[in-house]
Write a structure and sequence with these properties.
The protein is an all-alpha fold and 271 residues long. Helix content is 76%, strand content 1%.
């Protein structure tokens, strides 16, 4: 079986659509769906085991980039992107993405994945039992240093795990910056654009340093898979944004918390 087989193409398109919908709905980038899919898909396509994980991460981020752009534009129309915050988030995101991709290229990630899974579960529990505080207009503005730190952490995890970074950035914006869920999701989508772009450049660069390659790949980015999935993912992301604008803040927080719990458990069980 190879990447051009009808079964693999159909599965790739279906999961890509789901990833895009989640990206628009929750501002998470969609990599939580794409990375597990690619880790299962690429061995079936005969990829070299030595490059499967990094190619899964790089390809996921390459798809997340245009999806996040579409999601950001849609959230902007709904007034949920605060550009004065995004610039500082982006500054931290660029630095974090370079650090994360560099670490992923040289450090075995099994133990860090365990820590990541535990953290996802803890964050989900916090959100499930935490009464979200909605920021009022007359409250003190968010500190720029806090925005840079949130961007740095989100960018690092985005690059290291190839998952967009929203699974970290959105909870941090909710819990520590006290942003409303719709503003957190919109700002997260804008942050993902910057962090995923920086990370894709790094994954291409590090992949080109290796002698072995994979079919249709440029560095650690598989161009064929990215070209198949990205258009559907962009479209479904816009659908997700429309659902997000019609869903209450409380429901979105609970949905996001349950999703994080499932991600954490799956990582720990190594399914």
């Amino acid at each position: 079986m190879d990447l051009l087989s009808p079964q693999i193409i159909l599965l790739t398109l279906s999961m890509g659509s789901l990833a895009g919908f989640l990206a628009g709905l929750l501002g998470i980038g969609g990599g939580v769906i794409l990375v597990p899919l690619f880790l299962w898909l690429f061995p079936l396509a005969g990829f070299d085991p030595e490059v499967i994980v990094h190619t899964a991460f790089g390809t996921s981020l390459a798809i997340i980039l245009p999806t996040a752009i579409g999601s950001t534009l849609a959230h902007r129309k709904n007034g949920n992107v605060v550009w004065s915050m995004v610039w500082y988030l982006a500054l931290g995101g660029i630095l974090g993405s370079f650090l994360g991709s560099s670490a992923a290229s040289v450090i075995p990630g099994e133990m860090l994945k365990v820590y990541f899974g535990l953290m996802q579960i803890l964050v989900s529990l916090k959100l499930l039992f935490y009464k979200t505080h909605v920021r009022l207009e007359d409250e003190a503005p968010v500190k720029n240093s806090s925005l840079v730190l949130v961007g740095l952490i989100g960018g690092f995890f985005s690059a290291f795990f190839g998952i967009g970074g929203g699974v970290i950035a959105v909870p941090l914006m909710l819990i520590f910056l006290h942003l409303p869920i719709h503003k957190a999701v919109g700002n997260s989508a804008a942050l993902i654009v910057v962090s995923s772009f920086s990370a894709v450049i790094c994954y291409i660069w590090y992949g080109l340093q290796l002698p072995q390659g994979t079919p249709f790949s440029f560095g650690y980015v598989n161009l064929l898979v990215a070209a198949l999935v990205a258009p559907l993912s962009i479209f479904s992301a816009r659908v997700g944004v429309k659902f997000a604008s019609r869903t209450s803040q409380t429901k979105l927080v609970k949905i996001f918390a349950v999703l994080l719990m499932c991600i954490g458990i799956k990582i720990l069980l190594k399914l």
